[in-house]
Write a structure and sequence with these properties.
The complex is a heterodimer of chains A (415) and B (447). Chain A is α/β, with parallel strands linked by helices. Chain A is built from 14 helices and nine strands. The longest helix of chain A has 19 residues. In chain B, 49% of the residues lie in helices and 12% in strands. In chain B, strands 3-2-1-4-5-6-7-8 form an eight-stranded mixed β-sheet, sandwiched between helices. In chain B, strands 9-10-11 form a three-stranded antiparallel β-sheet. The chains are: A alpha/beta (415), B alpha/beta (447).
Chain lengths: 415, 447
């Protein structure tokens, strides 16, 4: 990938709450906010920090399946709804399954690099609690190849990653892997409790590690190799952030130290019609993340924090291995040893990630960028971690489907 | 005839009623699940839903559609395997819709009894009317083209009487569901001396497949469940009358107090008057009338129930499941007033409850709410502590509760002594499972 021809920054991030089971205000029997609410709240949350809509050149909105969850297409048409100042300006909707948010980001980055814009409003959202989980599974299954749906599990994606977990257990041992997965869950809950917008913010379990370790996969009720605690929940939510050039940053009145600079990024896609080469490896994540590191000209030992796509705990462990932090088969031990906890060698998913913060699918990629922006600029509130001067970089990994579409971005605090 | 063959043509009598609709639903699910097994491919399964009302039968299909969807949503993993060869069914949506269709196309809603003549199995869930039951079952037996077996959902009529009077030759068994059948786990199984072993074996297999808890009851009017509840209710009414007289209270005030004591002090899901409203004052009166001729040593009758019926206050539930007013008046499912049989009107709690609550006195600190006991691992210990404290509490509430608890135990013990139940465990299981009590009536808490 070519080096970035121009400096690109992100600032003014905003997250709605991630609404779903676990949040006290969630009641599946009562009417809940629709997509209009989430798009508006996230969009206006960014606009308030950047001097209003007149400073925006164009917008990108990432979403996966509003067409089925909400019977709504033509999503770019909702951008001017956020603020009249966005009317008659360019807007585009992007989709890459659960990587739709990441695509919103890299599309915005490319618009700035292309010098067609100095300020891009990047949004991502999903409102999924409109249907029961058993039907939501159908909708989310469209992130896979539809021709495989018939033979897939009722809970299609948990089924896919259950197969990955099963292969990992077989190859590297069940008990040690389950310990790593339990630790991943515990880290997610402990981090989410520090972020008021997180879905698991209200979680009061005194020992999430013990709970997760005690719960055994039961194929008769769910999938063969995962428990529900290994899975991200169904979430409604949206996130937004401004992507700017240096000129754009001046225009919106944000100091560089209050922004993060995009140092490099990667973007890779695997053939959706083919099976993964190795179930115990996330090859597209590996490719895209290393592409991003190479593009940024850094190595993992310079990265201080990672936001990775843990739609399932096993995906978190495999990402650790894909990044080279642990050898193949040792990712679970690395996680169980606490190296990815908020006080560990390299804190992962510091506001809970997909399992703890939530996974409004089309919004997740943008949420990851907002978390990195919060952490690197000291705006993470109770969830703030200490960023080591020797490891000043933040990294995001956003995955669509079963390791099919991946975006990865390297950030550093602006200077 | 195998289990599956017996289920290939079934009729439910009273299929659109409160109990019949639930029995129809459970039977339909069992039949469709059997029909989906590879060995039953190509076989036709028919379930006749027989009732007197076309309108009610139309509503029944709507009920089935909603309930079957809920059931299918919970077993989609299994359904995907059952429909694996259907290439046209891809998404969960497709499979669940097909399952609902398979259930509905098997059900034949009819108002004609003749359909049951081709059935191998007949579920009877009509009104608790012995003459009606005998008339219907004998007609089917006389005209049946099959070796038909009968399951009766009667909650009080002795099965041997139905068998003898309808000439069923032992091909009948009492299969008493609790309301609502789709939710309640308990089934009382009542065989007679004449019931064929293969009928009982089939009934047990069917109950197992439905994941029901089976408690055998001997064939004595009222069986275990109503045997205890009816007497408990009668005691509740006597207790209120006695309390009113001794403390110079209005009867409605005493009813309020006894209801409160039986819910809060006895740690039950609802007070005895609320439970009588739930069952229905009319149903209760009817069942007592069925039971009373079969007992020699007690009079199972209540003047108060007769009075309520005369005043048109019957309790029971609306078709939506909402509670109708009975002894108590309900708003959003919660009791808010009590019926005054003298003034023939409801008296709001707020006009008198403070005085009654003060008379009852406070509960010990160790008191426990019924709901909190549901998943309590040390329930026995917690309840034991509470009732030990209650015994040293000098309040009217404690006195009433202890007396009530002892009476409830006596009722349970009498069911065993009278050979209605085989043992104390069966009595306790019925009250725990069918009535959701926190503990069985035969216990040592009130010694």
């Amino acid at each position: 990938m070519k080096k970035l021809r121009r400096k690109v920054y992100m600032a003014a991030g905003y997250n709605t709450i991630s609404l779903g089971t676990g949040r006290k205000e969630f009641n599946p029997k009562k009417e809940r906010p629709g997509i209009e609410h989430y798009i508006s709240e996230a969009g206006q949350g960014v606009l308030k920090q950047i001097g209003g809509a007149e400073n925006v050149d164009e917008s990108v909105i990432g979403n996966f399946m509003a067409g089925r969850f909400n019977y709504q297409g033509h999503l770019d048409g909702f951008i001017p709804m956020i603020d009249k100042g966005l009317s008659m300006k360019p807007a585009v909707r992007v989709e890459g399954a659960c990587a739709s948010g990441g695509l919103s980001l890299v599309t915005g980055i490319r618009q700035v690099l292309a010098e067609t814009s100095d300020v891009v409003l990047s949004l991502g959202f999903e409102v999924q609690n409109t249907v029961k989980a058993i039907y939501g599974a159908d909708i989310l299954a469209m992130a896979g190849w539809f021709k495989k749906r018939k033979k897939g599990h009722a809970y299609f994606f948990p089924g896919q990653f259950s197969d990955r977990a099963g292969a990992y257990y077989e190859k590297y041992g069940f008990d040690r892997t389950r310990k790593g997965m339990a630790r991943w869950y515990a880290n997610a809950i402990e981090n989410a409790r520090l972020d008021p917008t997180a879905q698991e913010y209200h979680n009061t379990n005194p020992d999430p590690y013990a709970t997760a370790l005690k719960m055994k996969p039961n194929g008769a009720a769910f999938v063969d190799h995962l428990t529900v605690l290994d899975c991200s929940k169904v979430s409604d939510g949206a996130s937004g952030i401004a992507i700017c050039s240096e000129e754009g940053l001046k225009r919106i009145g944000v100091d560089k130290k209050d922004a993060v600079e995009v140092i490099g990024f990667g973007h890779a896609v695997r053939d959706i019609t083919s099976d993964p080469t190795d179930l115990t490896e996330l090859e597209t994540i590996k490719h895209a993340a290393h592409q991003a590191l190479e593009n940024a000209g850094i190595t993992m030992d310079q990265v201080g924090t990672v936001e990775t796509h843990d739609c399932f705990s096993i995906a978190g462990i495999l990402a650790v291995e894909a990044l080279g932090l642990a050898a193949k088969g040792e990712g679970a031990d690395y996680v169980d040893a606490g190296h990815t906890s908020r006080t560990g060698e390299i804190p992962f998913n510091t506001t809970g990630g997909l399992i703890g913060w939530g996974h409004p699918t089309g919004g997740t990629g943008v949420h990851q960028a907002v978390t990195i922006w919060q952490q690197l600029t000291g705006n993470a509130g109770d969830a703030q971690i200490t960023i080591d001067e020797k490891r000043p970089y933040g990294l995001t990994i956003n995955m669509g489907g079963d390791d099919v579409t991946v975006t990865s971005i390297v950030f550093k605090r602006g200077a | 005839m195998t289990y599956d063959e017996r289920l290939q043509n079934v009729s439910v009598l009273g299929a659109a009623g409160k109990m019949g609709s639930g029995i129809l639903l459970l039977t339909a699910i069992e039949m469709v699940d059997r029909s989906l097994q590879p060995e039953n491919k190509g076989k036709t399964f028919v379930l006749n839903a027989i009732d007197v009302s076309d309108e009610a039968l139309a509503g029944l299909l709507g009920y089935l559609k909603v309930q079957v969807r809920k059931i299918a949503e919970k077993k989609t993993v299994w359904l995907r395997k059952m429909y694996a060869e259907r290439e046209d069914l891809i998404e969960n949506y497709d499979i669940i819709d097909e399952y609902i269709f398979d259930v509905l196309r098997m059900v034949r809603p009819v108002t004609s009894m003749e359909e049951a003549f081709r059935s191998s199995l007949v579920f009877e869930a009509v009104n608790e009317n012995r003459a009606l039951k005998v008339k219907l079952l004998s007609r089917i037996k006389e005209n049946s083209q099959k070796d038909v077996w009968f399951f009766t959902n009667t909650s009080s009529v002795p099965i041997h009487l139905i068998d003898e009077e309808a000439g069923l030759d032992g091909k009948v068994i009492g299969f008493h569901f609790y309301n609502p059948p789709a939710v309640q786990k308990l089934v009382e199984l009542i065989k007679t001396d004449n019931t064929l072993p293969e009928v009982e074996a089939f009934a047990r297999q069917y109950a197992t497949n439905l994941k029901k808890v089976v408690v055998p009851s001997n064939d004595v009017a009222g069986f275990i469940g109503n045997g205890h509840f009816m007497r408990d209710g009668l005691h509740g009414m006597k207790a209120a009358a006695k309390l009113a007289e001794e403390k110079n209270l209005s009867l409605y005030e005493a009813i309020y107090m006894v209801n409160k004591v039986t819910q809060e002090y006895l740690v039950r899901p609802m007070g005895i008057y609320q439970l009588m409203d739930y069952v229905g004052i009319d149903v209760m009166q009817f069942i007592l009338n069925v039971m009373n001729p079969f007992v020699d040593d007690e009079d199972l009758h209540s003047d108060l129930l007769d009075q309520m019926m005369e005043q048109g206050v019957k309790g029971g539930q609306f078709s939506s499941g909402a509670q109708k007013n009975g002894f108590l008046k309900y708003e959003k499912g919660r009791p808010v007033a009590v019926w005054d049989v003298q003034q023939k009107q409801y008296v709001p709690f707020e006009t008198f409850s403070a005085k009654c609550d003060e008379m009852l006195g406070s509960m010990p600190e160790s008191a426990v709410a019924w709901k909190s006991t549901l998943r309590m691992k040390n329930k026995d210990e917690v309840l034991g502590r509470f009732y030990t404290d209650l015994k040293t509490t000098d309040t009217l509430g404690a006195e009433l509760a202890l007396h009530y608890g002892k009476c409830s135990r006596k009722i349970g013990e009498k069911l065993v002594a009278d050979k209605v139940a085989n043992n104390p465990d069966d009595v306790n299981t019925v009250m725990l499972t069918g009535f959701y009590h926190a503990y069985g009536p035969i216990n040592t808490y009130f010694d």
